[in-house]
Amino acid sequence: MKAVILVGGLGTRLRPLTCNTPKPMIPLVNQPFIEWMLLRLRDQGITEVILAVQYLAHRFRESLGDGSQMELKIHIVEETEPLGTAGAVKNVEHLLDGPTFVFNGDVMTDLDLRAMLAFHREKQSKVTISLTPVEDPTQFGLVEMDRQNRVQRFLEKPGPEDITTDLINAGTYIIEPEVFRYVPPKQFYMFERGLFPVMLQTGDPMFGFPSRAYWTDIGKPQTYIDVHHDILIGKVAYNFRGRQIADRIWLEGDAEIHPSAQIVGPVVIGPGTVIKRGARVIGPTVIGARCVIGPECNIEGAVLWDDNVLDEGVVLRNCVLGRKNVIGERSHITDGAIVSDECSLGAENRLERGIRIWPNTELGDRAISF
Ligand code: GTP
């Protein structure tokens, strides 16, 4: 069975982490998210994957090649202009030959794809949309169905008085290629605002597949941090790389950990990392490869990509550091703050309340402090 993964978006909500790295390539527990997704698809019986790329397309080619390392056949198809979700699949229509899974490339889910396919066949559906319940439906596009699960209406961010369902489009579809006759070629065209409303008018059968599977969109800073916490506390199944060296502490390769450092799981530590005297690393936390955690640092609930260097007494809490940052002594980065790549912060800066630092920023001592 074939699948198309949409990975061409700009990932604006996750900037600046997506300035140098396309959203599906950002690390999830020290592994590019798309890699985790491809392995999951392979394990659920998908043999051939078409990646619809656009923004920072070369990053996918460099990292994934033809997929043979993962025992998958991967085609990477680049759009010269962004074509939108439906336009991007139309653009690879010549590679499709039957019902095809289509995935948003920024959704973490353990959805049962075989069950979804059986449902699609039983209903003789032309498009099946996976649906997930959410607590606050006013923030999403809702999908209304009849008793047989046939889609009746799409409601975009309704007011509280108009809410008739808590089910939203979860970003996984099974599509019969014949419906792409409704999609204009080489034009920007979306599923939610284009193809699906047209199919409601033409009466083509379109069904919703509700599921309580784990589901989260990794595309916002806080959800990106939250999904790490969910994985580390075991809310979603995940094969950690490396070996478990103590209760819920996973280490890949070798690390140098000072005997006086305190590590409380769940924590994942990448290869070549050094944790110095008196540092405290409290889970759920992920530390990438070749990081240096200085003496007396205090880290809790943080996600660090590779090659970060923290000077003495740095505090990180519920934040993300991209690649190759140098953080000056006694700086505090907390409350959803993001430092992207190759930044240099002097001593005693305080980054809080979702502040975002763009790549290559240089801040002197106490440049930001409240
Ligand atoms: P935001 O800018 O933060 O909204 O993120 P995004 O650009 O990724 O958009 P969105 O989350 O709505 O996209 C859902 C999925 O579709 C993501 O996996 C995107 O990579 C993908 N996508 C969005 N637009 C396009 C497009 O024009 N072409 C392709 N190939 N994929 C797209």
Your description of this structure?
The chain has 370 residues and is of the alpha/beta class. The chain has two domains: 217 residues, Spore Coat Polysaccharide Biosynthesis Protein SpsA, Chain A (Alpha-Beta Complex); 121 residues, UDP N-Acetylglucosamine Acyltransferase, domain 1 (3 Solenoid), CATH 2.160.10. It is built from six helices and 34 strands. The strands form seven sheets. It has an eight-stranded mixed β-sheet with strand order 14-15-18-21-24-27-30-33. Strands 5-4-1-6-11-8-12 form a seven-stranded mixed β-sheet, with helices on both faces. The chain has a seven-stranded parallel β-sheet with strand order 16-19-22-25-28-31-34, with no helix packed on it. A hairpin with a 2-residue loop joins strand 14 and strand 15. It is elongated, with a radius of gyration of 22 Å. The mean pLDDT is 94. It binds guanosine-5'-triphosphate. Guanosine-5'-triphosphate binds next to helix 3.
